[in-house]
User: Fold Ribonuclease HII from Kaistella daneshvariae.
Amino acid sequence: MKLRKSWSSLYLEAGCDEVGRGCLCGPVVAAAVILPKKFKQNLVNDSKKLTFQTRMELDSYIKENVMEFAIAELPPSFIDEHNILNASIHAMHRAVDQLTTRPELILVDGNRFHAYPFIPHQCIVKGDEKFLSIACASILAKNYRDQLMIKLHDEFPQYGWNTNMGYATKAHQNALMEFGPTIHHRRSFRLDYSEAVPDLQEEYIEA
Assistant:
């Protein structure tokens, strides 16, 4: 499906998205992307609809062909202090902060956002399935976070973060029962799985 390039031709837009809201551990990561008018969609789509390999192949294409992009992350400690919704929105703000070109409109995936100073925004439910800039942001944020979780897996291999990326798969829950939480786990999330573990899908799904 061909994604829309802009909400309105009147504004310079930045598409924003975040990943990692539903994870038990690791940071929440957000990206902001400004597209040039002649940006070609190529295989860009909602990151959840792309394979790991395709997302990684698109990473360089997006970074080399967009007008500008930025990525920001916030650690579990920030999530625990401010809650995951506020942390996700703040991460998107931080990504926009890093853009050297100031957008005139922010396109946000989802239905919740805190007003960014002096720049209007538009929330779009399932925006990563509809707008090219948001889809690009979702790919960059997901690739960044996946690579980070794969590195953290080397430190704590028993939790399987190289495959579940920190989501509450059955294997991850079993590891929490056996080994307890790490410094990378979100203490404000449910981490006690001493009760019977449901038969969950082993592959992670980004909400």
In short: The longest helix spans residues 132-155. Strands lie at 13-19, 28-34, 68-74, 105-109, 121-124. The radius of gyration is 17 Å. The helical segments are 52-65, 76-82, 84-97, 132-155, 161-164, 170-179.
